Amino acid sequence: MSSMLGLGVAVMPLQFCTSPKKETAIAELDKSKLDKFGIQLYSIKEDMAIDPQATMRALAGFGYKQFEGFDGGKGILWGMQPAEFKTLLSETGTTMIASHANVFENLDAQAALAAEVGMKYLICPWIGPQKSLDDYRKKAEEFNQIGEKLKSFGVKFAYHNHDYTFVDLEGSLPQDILMDHTDPALVDFEMDIYWVHVANAQPAEYLAKYPGRFKLCHLKDAEPGTGDPHQRGVLLGSGEIPYAELIKQSKELGMEHFIVEQERFPSGTPMDAAKANASYLSALEF
């Protein structure tokens, strides 16, 4: 009997060694945070038009480590020379990860500038709704050609979606056509999670459908409802998109760059929104 009791005493600690409190503590230790995140400069386009350097310095002060640009009429370097632009990035401890650009015109010149300042991507932000799936197939082939051209400069190509590629056309999703008819070695994708969500698609399911194809994403939140999709944008964390879950899953599926984009401002200024979104992402655990 005493030997059996001794065995019971020995076994019990193994059975009950993990208490609920310890499990919670372990779970908390397993949580991660984004070590760096970026912002699409279109979010504060008015400020960029007035003083791009001061604006980028302020954004770096909010915690943004990466920038994604766009051509605001002064070119993808906002009127700065490459050396001046690189100095700004060095002084602020940031990188210019990408720029949205008109990739259908002056591609060589833009690619050369992008390469000189260390950009990883030039991104097509818009092709507009096409009339047929064949038209999307033609765009996919054009994307392959653009990707091949950019490859020679050491720059990658990506396409940024809106809602229209997630709306049924001829029994298929146009986004599927673009995914299936582009070469993964030449064409990456930037998922605008907001536009996928308001198109009533499921960002998580779509990311899982094409693992490794989405390397960048736009983060912006949507208020609940079914109204005008252009009028549902809200600050991160105040809408219905489950970003903690999505960021965790997308990282596991190959997502590398998380970029804030704010296009609607229910209150405050665009810079106020940029600061609030940076605070949200800095504190987010997943």
TrEMBL record:
InterPro entries: IolE/XylAMocC-like, Xyl_isomerase-like_sf, Xyl_isomerase-like_TIM-brl
UniProt KW keywords: Isomerase
Entry-linked Gene3D superfamilies: Divalent-metal-dependent TIM barrel enzymes
Domain of life per record: Bacteria
Location of the Xylose isomerase-like TIM barrel domain: 63-281
One Gene Ontology term of the molecular function aspect: isomerase activity
Name this polypeptide is given: Sugar phosphate isomerase/epimerase
Organism annotation: Algoriphagus boritolerans DSM 17298 = JCM 18970
